[in-house]
Amino acid sequence: MRPLTDGTELLVGRDGELSWLVGWIRDLAAGRGHAVLVDGEPGIGKSALVRAACAAAEAADCQVYWGAGDELGQALPLLPLLDALGITPGTRDPRREAISKLLRGGAVAGQGADLAAAASEQLIALVDELCQAGPAVLVVDELQWADRTTVAVWSRLARSVRQLPLLLIGVLRPVPRRDDLRSLFRLVGPAERLRLGRLADPAVLELVAALAGGKPGEELAQLADGAAGNPLYLTELVDALNRSSCLAVDTAGVVELTGAATPDSLPEAIADRLGFLPEQAQGVLRAAALLGVGFSVADLVTVTDTPLADLLPALDEARAAGVLVAAGDDLAFRHPLIRQALYDEMPTAVRVAWHQAAAWALAEASAPVERVARQLLPMVSTTDSRVPVPAWAVRWLLEVATLLIGQAPVVAVALLRRAVRDAPLDDAVTGALACRLADAYYRVDNIAQAERIACRALDRVRDPDVRVDLHTTVVQCRGSTGRAAESLAALNEALTQPGLEARHRAKLLVLIARTHQDLGDVETAGEVATAALVELGPAEDRWATGWALHLLSLAAMSRGDWAGALPLFERAMAIVRGDPALIDLTLLLRINQSVTLGALDRLGDALAAAGQARELADRTGSAVRLAQAQSAIGQVLLGAGRWDDALAEVDVVPDDRKEPAVVCADHGVAAIIHFHRGETADARRHLDVAALYAERIGDRVVDPLARARGLAFEHAGAPERALAVLTAAQGGEDASQELLADAARLAAATGDERTVAAIEARVRALAAESAIPHRRALALYCRGLLEQDGTMLLRAADGYRDAGRPLSRARALEAAAIAFAKARDDDRGSARAAFTHATDMYAELDAQWDVARLRAMFRALGIRRGPTVKHRQATHGWDSLTPTEGRIAALVVEGLSNPQIAARLYLSPRTVGTHVSHILNKLGVHSRIDIAREAARHQSASG
What is the Cα–Cα distance from 573 to 588, expressed in whole angstroms? Predict the structure, then answer.
């Protein structure tokens, strides 16, 4: 039996479970983390058990952080974690202040910003930093009431416990059990799950004796047996008997019943406790129940409009009665069931009215958006649809809609939907509300409803600014569902409406240009974008100008005019830079700038641009753009021959957070690498995953996936089918240089001279007057294949060397070796030199399939390779680490956290986390401390 620190609970009969938690705390102190789930029915003692473990953790000099879900707040993101980690306005800690500012909209504003996703990344980084300071315990109690974003963060942290000195504990009831909660039980193994059942009979008697002050007599023991071993029920039962003077201790120390009136259930026992409080205290507690299980005294002062001095007597009485307990700087109900009893006893209409009054008071006090929204939600969740949205709430929603949509789009939908229904048919108010509601529906992926609301509002709204916003939403909706063409007629008609200023017409022209872009008519999109800039003239509109320049740059890219696209990107970036309302456009510009720089063979600059996009997307919570930036990085690294790094980058963002085309590209990159390395099963697994997503984008060509599918047929000994795949994919003007090169190579290998000639003519035209090294190299490569000119193919290899593209260089050297070997003069010396060089290039990439294929080919020709160099072959142990993994391991040994390593190496924390996981697996160890031990052992062994 262990009294807890606040003296309000006793822990009895849980020695076995506590010993498991204490054991995990010992592991934590030694640097090894765990993720643990504790579940059981309400009142069974889950929280008391974990609090006892936390006391042991604090005694072991571990940091302890505790937050709890709340049924009232489950629609709002991250509240348990924000509470646990002390994220409040005015905090002096830079990371915490950044998160608080982010959620208040101070760091990111504008449509498209996913504030919850951005805050999630910052919270994970904060936990990493806290663990760097020392072992940490993070508890999320009442996890069944936590929002899905909190559960997602908990899940990500659970996957990271091998890398951090973190004991992550989730405490939850068996119901409700959502799908995301069920996934946690698959993530956390059986060995780290504790299910608390009823107390055993001896423990029941021990607890009753401690509460009653003596050994329970027969009648009291029988009464206690009816509590089904539930510690909370037993506590409430014995306390009710004490308050009613129904217990007496005889001279032998035995406690006997002296009265018959006893609570028949746990709710009755709780009601009995509350009934002993004065009416004033009960009124204060009812107001507190509106705020949740935990609440700030400042908020209670605000919603009751009562000075603190007048509240203190009631709060003191509630604490003395065991209803409230201290929770850091705030107060909390001793158990959620006590708050629920107070809350449920109020009629629904009364509750809703109280919530509305509380919301108004908090809004008037400039409380954070989520606190006001939390009080308004019961108004829209009630079955009484007649409850109107008050006028002040409509005004408040208009002011905070963008921030609320970014932070909690589901809540925004609920509140805005009711506000639109109740708002007077005033053009300005109704139109603005409908516009924001359509945005909110779009954010929660209800595209059809977003489009319906926007179209309906267009029929009655006349304000040109609102109409342009509504048209923007409609264009987005139709574009995302493959119906972009439907927007053109309405947009052209909108241009003829009276009362439009130049900036309105320019914006509509940009929307028309974007629609043509979505339809694949890139040249028309460029022409309309130019018209938009002309229409705008001297007027200033950063949105219209930035988008028009972006569309012009895309048109230049599609023509292969990479050098012409680059200054357009730079002009657009100069216009939109620093505007929080144009974050999404800024990200698009950076990502496409990276693609352009890569096409110009400026691979280092391409990685830097994509890295900037990744950092901004991570910070602002743009999941779609983050995935696109990561994919761009992976493709640049593939071309640059940094294959291990490419595999890490494309694996950072989960597939369910990517667009289908990005999933296809990333799995295509991974499959290409695995095929070249002879890891056929892994490559086919990636192709199988990509196939599921490729169905969603129809006939759209995704370059890396097409190349990977071609390699699959090559591995199967079907080069003709591989050529057919690539030929079908390279029909468009923007076919990649790598795809064209592979198609030419396969055509040459299968004797299809007509296809080789067609590709050669095409790339010769592309390379004319071009200074881009890989373009000139491709032209030489295709002509060398066509003419079987080994010398020309060597020149192509030199061009690929200058472009920094090792796989293409190895291909050109291989083709040169074959050409020399098959030449009439049988130039074996040149063939052997090119063959040896190509083999070394493939070996440096660890492309074992290519090495084996090339050696077999030249053995058949009777040619042996020259002297070789040794390349990394180890798959486990220190020698198996890639150069990037080696650098990261060294920084882990120095004691740097993942965010610190990311800053040092210009990587994302997610990428560092992926590399650290690979390091742990390759070294066969379980924690960062183990990495340090392995490093010391390796250094000692190597002298």
Answer: 10
Is there a contact between 368 and 73 (Cβ–Cβ < 8 Å)? no
The token duo for 220 is 């009291």
Q: How far is 848 from 865, CA to CA, in rounded Å?
A: 16
Compute the 3-state secondary structure of the chain and give helix, strand, coil in percent, each to the nearest 5. Answer: 70, 5, 25
Q: Which residues in 641-680 belong to E strands, given as ranges?
A: none
Question: Which residues, other chains included, contact 918 with Cβ-Cβ below 8 Å and sequence gap of 6+?
Answer: 648, 885
Interior angle at CA 577, CA 573 and CA 578, nearest 5: 175
pLDDT at position 9 is 65
644/884 Cα distance (integer angstroms): 8
Residue 436 CA to residue 454 CA, distance in Å, equals 9
- The residue-averaged pLDDT of 412-437 equals 83
Measure the CA angle with vertex 138, ends 289 and 77; round to 5°: 50
- Token representation of residue 51: 């609090």
Specify the pairing of strand 294-295 against strand 330-333. Answer: antiparallel
Taking alpha carbons only, the member of 470, 439, 436, 469 closest to residue 455 is 470
Q: Give the C-alpha separation, 163 to 131, whole Å.
A: 10
- 578 C-beta neighbours (distance < 10 Å), count: 9
Name the residue among 341, 345, 338 with its Cα closest to residue 323.
338
Residue 85 CB neighbour total at 10 angstroms: 22
pLDDT of 864 > 80? The answer is no
Directed axis angle between helix 231-243 and helix 218-225, to 10°? 130
* Mean pLDDT for all residues in the chain: 88
Residue located via tokens 């409430």: 236
> What pLDDT, in 10s, does the model give residues 289-345?
999 999 999 999 999 999 999 999 999 999 988 899 988 788 999 888 899 889 988
Closest by CA to 454, choosing from 440, 434, 468, 433, is: 434
Instruction: Locate 581 and state its tokens.
Output: 């309302």
Helices assigned H by DSSP within 559-582: 562-576
Are residues 899 and 128 in contact, defined by beta-carbon separation less than 8 angstroms? yes
Q: Which of 735, 749, 736, 830 is nearest to 785 (CA)?
A: 749
User: How far does the chain reach from its first CA to its final CA, in angstroms?
Assistant: 54
User: Diameter of the chain by CA atoms?
Assistant: 118
452 pLDDT more than 60: yes
Burial class (CB in 10 A: 0-12, 13-18, 19+), 768: exposed
Closest CA to 805 of 776, 765, 770, 763: 776
Residue at 336: amino acid letter: P
Question: What b/e sequence results for 467-500 when a residue is b if at least 16 CB atoms lie within 10 Å of its CB, and e otherwise?
Answer: bbbbbbbbbbbbbbeeebeebbebbeebeeeeeb
Answer whether residue 593 shows pLDDT above 60. Answer: yes
* pLDDT the model gives residue 7: 40
Tens digits of residue pLDDT in 781-815: 999 999 999 999 999 999 999 999 999 999 999 99
pLDDT digits (tens, 9 = 90+) for 285-297: 999 999 999 999 9
Q: Which of 102, 144, 141, 148 is nearest to 123 (CA)?
A: 102
* pLDDT over 90, % of the chain: 55
> Position of tokens 């179209």?
455
Q: What are phi and psi of 845, to 5 degrees?
A: -85, -5
Which one, of 466, 464, 475, 474, lies nearest residue 430 by Cα?
A: 466
Q: Are 167 and 195 in contact (CB under 8 A)?
A: no
In angstroms, rounded to a whole number, what is the distance separating the alpha carbons of residues 51 and 383? Answer: 38
Residue 876, classified by CB atoms within 10 Å of its CB into exposed (0-12), middle (13-18) or buried (19+), is exposed
State which H helix or E strand residue 693 sits in: helix 680-694
- How many Cβ atoms are within 10 Å of 861's Cβ, its own excluded? 15
Rounded distance, CA 105 to CA 93, Å?
18
The model's pLDDT over 178-196, given as tens digits with 9 standing for 90+, comes to 889 999 999 999 999 999 9
Residue 225: what residue type? D
